[in-house]
Amino acid sequence: METSNFIKTIMENDIKNKKHDEIITRFPPEPNAYLHIGHARAIITNFESAKAFGGYTNLRFDDTNPAKEDAEFVEAIKEDLKWLGYTPKNVFYGSDYFEKTFEKAILLIKKGLAYVCDLSQEEMSKYRGTLNEPGINSPYRDRSVEENLDLFMKMREGVFPDGSKTLRAKIDMASPNINLRDPALYRIMHINHHRTGNAWCIYPMYDFAHPLQDSFEGITHSLCSLEYDNHRPLYDWVINNCEVDSIPHQYEFGRLNITNTIMSKRYLKMLVDSKKVKGYDDPRMPTLVGLRRRGYTPDSIKNFILETGLSRINSTVNSEMLDHFLREDLKLKATRPMAVINPLKVTITNYPSDQIEYLEVLNNVENEELGTRKIAFSNELYIDRDDFILEKPNKHWKRLAKDVEVRLFGAYFIKCNDVVYDENGNIIELLCTYDVNTKSGSGFNERKPNGTIHYVEAKTAQKALFLQFEPLILDNNDEELSFLERVNPNSYKETYGYVEESLKDAKPNDKFQFLRTGYYQTDYDSKPGSLIFNCITALKSSVK
C-alpha cells in the first residue's frame, strides 16, 4: 500500500535539494516493556519512509536507564520487528556509545556549557520555575571548569551516592521552554546494567544521549511523536554544541489513539501486575505479542497504520478499522471450516443411524485455489442454537424454525418436525427429516429453502474451547473510577462447542474463517484433543 505524508514530502525535498544522499532513520525503543500497537506506528513509519527512498533503518535500544530495563524486553522487541516483517540494517544500543557520550559531556564542561550540580531532584524542580515564572540559577552554576571536571570524573569513579549530584547543561534558566532551563545531562545510578554490568555508575539522560546517538549513526531524519516537539530545541542545542560530524534533524508526528484501546505502557504493566490479564501476550492486550497471539496478521497491522496516515497532530481512529484490515487480509487466505460455538443437537430421524456420508466442499468459496475438503454428514448433527427459533417470527427470519425447511451448508435440506425439552422446559434436541434429493450440487430447484445454515456432524466432531474477547477498557466507562476498576468484566469469555473433523490437527497460529461465525486463530496452548481457538474478529463490523 503506497501512501504519502508530510514526512515523505520532507524526505523527497531533502533528496531533491541534495541535503542528503541517503535517507537513514532509526527506531529507538527503551527495552523496559513490551511494544504495543502505538509503537507499530513508529516502526512502520521509520522503516517504510526510509525504504521509499532506498534508504535504511537502524534498531537502537535506548538502554540508558538500567533501573527499568531488561534483556527480556530486548529479545521481545527484536521478535516483534521480525514478525512485522522488518529487518534493521544495524542493531545498536545506547550503551554502545557510553564512552563517546561521556567524552561529549567533558567537551561541554570544558566549553563552560555544563556544570555539576548538588541540588536534589526536588530542589531542581523547585528552582526550575513554572510556565509563567522564570527559573532560578543553581547555587552551583558558577563552579569553575576545573572543579566541574574533577567532580564529574569522581561521579564516574563512583565516589558519590545516587541522587547526590547531576551534570547539567548551562543554557538559560529564564527560557520560556522549560526543557532549556539547565536540563540534567547525567545522573548517578549505582545499579547493574543488563549489558555493561557495573562498568558505569553514571548514565546520560535521554535528551542528551539521543541526539548524539543519532549523530554517531548518521541518522538523517529522527522521527518521534508529538510529545517531543518542545524537546527539539534541546536536541538542536546538543547537536550544535557537541561538535559532531553528522547533523541529524528531529521531526515530530502526531500520536495515534485507538478507541477502546489502552496505549500506555504504565497501564499495561498495571494490568499484568494485578493479574487482570494472563500476561503481556494475553489476546486482549494491545501489545504486539498479544495481537499476534490473538491472530492479527502483520499485513493487517501494517495496512491499518499506513491507511490511518501521518499528520502533525494527534488523532483517534475507531478500533473497527483494524478489524477491517484483518478481514481484508484473511478473506482470501483463510479456509472456511464449520464450527458450532453454541451447540444444539439435531437428530435426522429418516437417515440411517449407522451411516456417515462425506461430502466435498470448497475450502473458500471466494478462492477456489485453496482446494476442497470432505465434511461429514450423519443422523446426528450440531447446529448453532441461535439458528433455531420455535416459531418463525417474520419473513426476514432466514434460519431454522419448527415446520420450516433450511439447507445445511454443502449437504441437504432439513426440516424440523419436533423438539425435545429437558425438565426445565429448555429445548435440548431437534427432531428433523432430510430430503435425499436435495444434496448440494445435485441441481435440485423444486423449492426454495428458508436460508442456509452451518452444522457439525456429531460423531466426528472435535470438542473445542472458544475464547471470545471484548475491549479491556471501554471509552464510556465511568472515568471517576480507578483504572483497574474500569476493566471490562466481559472482556474474556470461554465457550465450549465443536469444530468439524478437518480441524483435529489444527496447529497454533493457524487461522480460519469459521463459516458464518468469525475469524479465529488456534491458540498457543491448543493441541490435538484439547483444541482452543481465539476469536480475532467478527465477520462484519459491529459499528452502526
Keyphrases for this structure?
544 residues; alpha/beta; seven-stranded mixed β-sheet; 12 helices; elongated
Q: How would you describe what is shown here?
A:
Strand 27 and strand 28 form a beta hairpin. It contains 12 helices and 28 strands. The longest helix has 16 residues, at 37-52. Helix content is 24%, strand content 24%. It is elongated. The model has no long low-confidence stretch (mean pLDDT 96). The strands form 8 sheets. Strands 22-19-20-21-13-16-23 form a 7-stranded mixed β-sheet, with no helix packed on it. It has a 6-stranded mixed β-sheet with strand order 12-25-24-28-27-26. It is of the alpha/beta class. The chain has helices at residues 6-16, 37-52, 71-84, 98-110, 121-127, 145-157, 206-216, 232-241, 265-273, 288-294, 298-308, 320-330, and strands spanning 24-27, 56-61, 91-93, 114-117, 166-169, 184-188, 202-204, 221-225, 249-253, 256-258, 315-317, 339-340, 343-348, 357-362, 372-377, 380-384, 388-389, 400-401, 405-408, 413-421, 427-435, 452-453, 456-457, 462-469, 492-499, 511-514, 518-522, 531-537.
Instruction: State the helicity in percent bands.
Output: 10-25%
Spatial gap, N to C terminus: 27 Å
Gyration radius (Cα, Å) is 31 Å
What portion of residues belong to β-strands? Answer: 15-25%
Q: Could you say which structural class the secondary elements and strand pairing correspond to?
A: alpha/beta
Q: What is the overall number of helices? A: 12
The neighbouring-strand order within the major sheet is 22-19-20-21-13-16-23
Low-confidence stretches: none
Major beta-sheet overview: 7 strands, mixed
Tell me, rounded to a whole number, the average pLDDT: 96
Q: What gross morphology would you assign? A: elongated
Number of strands: 28
